[in-house]
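Project outcomes to date are best conveyed with an example. Our students and postdoctoral researchers have been running inverse folding experiments weekly, and each run begins with a structure described purely in tokens. The record below, which covers 426 residues, was selected by the lab manager from last quarter's runs and is presented without edits.
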């Protein structure tokens, strides 16, 4: 088989300093062809291995796997394509580039070689400059494969570290959820003239909603519902900060309570919103703001005084099921320094109830992205009119889940329910 002789003027091929020269296995039953190819390959800087048969080549590959293989097609005992197929079945750490030498030029033969696993072909007589070009192409593929392995290892290690960080974050968020839920020290309390029930369900691990109540004096209690803008950790941290200003146990820090009067007394609700607005703008350096519903409820008389600052309207459900929408709207808290807030008043009769909800309820979408809205919430309240206390809130949540098609709620949902019994003290 004639080959183009290597030219002595070809410069030797230098291997990169960071790795050894590629190892090339030449397989041919002709000693002359082996000598000619090996001479050219060594001149180009390759490390050369030789084999006179496919069986001998397989043994070499088992002991010292080559980077590239140049194999004749027709050999005694085992053909080049069969050798290639056996070569591909061998276990190895990296890819081996395989070039078949053939005098066959038909599409069927090429297809047979490709099906056996060959990467490239050279027809005889071999043109050495073309062989060198094919080897360079094979090296580029092997180099890309090595780079890909390194990058995959880097990605794998990075993913492992991310997984560890995610697990740690998941544990922290679970603990944060427990801490946030602990802000609801009493999700239900019965008073002499009524009862208060609370609902808080974050959309994720932690959320930006806050609901609660605190006693002011005797039959006078404060109810609050807050929704901090955004989601996640920063919203939850701001929620915890605000919770300290509506605490029933730390009267001195409660923004709704006066400490300069002989008897416990609350600030007018509109002033409570203004005080919180000033505090957030002065002390909390964040782009977050919040909506607020604060209601002072006198359980001796049923009188309500409240303020609505960007939160959905409070709803009163009368004993006979009728619904009244109260409140005056208003700007959110912590947004504008000169925001003005107007209070509202209403009265509960025995058997009436007051419901404060976040916009996660009224803006809950169904599978067509239609929001529940206020009229939908009123429908749910009428449907569950016979239920009381936590059971009423559980029924509302179940109906809201059905409205959402069983999907997770996209926003936190929260509610405060005051049910007024009236009448003399027990």
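After processing, the design step wrote out the following sequence:
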């Amino acid at each position: 088989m004639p080959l183009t002789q290597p030219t002595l003027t070809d410069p030797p091929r230098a291997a990169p300093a960071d790795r050894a020269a590629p190892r090339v296995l030449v397989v041919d039953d002709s000693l002359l062809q082996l000598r000619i190819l090996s001479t050219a390959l060594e001149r180009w800087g390759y490390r050369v291995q030789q084999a006179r048969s496919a069986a001998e080549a397989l043994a070499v590959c088992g002991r010292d796997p080559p980077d590239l293989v140049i194999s004749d097609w027709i050999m005694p005992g085992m053909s080049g394509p069969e050798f290639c197929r056996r070569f591909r079945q061998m276990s190895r750490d990296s890819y081996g580039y395989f070039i078949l030498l053939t005098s066959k030029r038909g599409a069927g033969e090429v297809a047979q070689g490709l099906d056996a696993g060959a990467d490239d072909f050279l027809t005889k007589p071999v043109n050495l400059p073309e062989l060198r070009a094919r080897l360079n192409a094979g090296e580029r593929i092997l180099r890309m494969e090595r780079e890909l392995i390194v990058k995959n290892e880097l990605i794998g290690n990075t993913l492992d570290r991310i997984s560890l960080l995610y697990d740690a974050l998941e544990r922290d968020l679970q603990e944060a959820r427990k801490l946030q839920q602990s802000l609801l020290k009493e999700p239900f309390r019965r008073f002499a003239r009524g009862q208060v029930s609370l609902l808080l369900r974050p959309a994720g691990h932690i959320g930006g909603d806050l609901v609660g109540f605190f006693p002011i004096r005797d039959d006078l209690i404060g109810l609050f519902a807050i929704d901090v803008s955004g989601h996640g950790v920063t919203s939850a941290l701001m929620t915890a900060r605000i919770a300290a200003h509506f605490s029933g146990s730390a009267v001195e820090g409660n923004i709704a309570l006066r400490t300069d009067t002989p008897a416990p007394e609350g600030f007018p609700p509109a002033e409570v919103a203004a005080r919180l607005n000033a505090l957030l703008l002065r002390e909390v350096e964040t782009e977050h703001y919040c909506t607020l519903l604060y209601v002072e409820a006198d359980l001796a008389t049923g009188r309500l005084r409240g303020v609505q600052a960007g939160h959905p309207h409070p709803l009163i459900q009368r004993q006979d099921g009728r619904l009244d929408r109260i409140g005056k709207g208003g700007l959110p808290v912590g947004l504008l320094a000169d925001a003005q807030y107007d209070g509202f008043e209403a009265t509960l009769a025995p058997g009436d109830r007051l419901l404060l909800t976040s916009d996660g309820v009224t803006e809950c979408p169904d599978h067509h992205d239609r929001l529940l809205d206020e009229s939908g919430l009123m429908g749910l309240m009428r449907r569950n009119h016979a239920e009381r206390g936590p059971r009423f809130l559980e029924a509302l949540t179940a109906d809201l889940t059905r409205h959402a098609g069983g999907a997770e709620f996209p926003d936190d949902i929260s509610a405060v329910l005051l049910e007024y019994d009236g009448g003399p003290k027990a």
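Confidence is low (pLDDT under 50) at residues 1-9. The chain is about 35% helix and 25% strand. The training component of this project remains on track.
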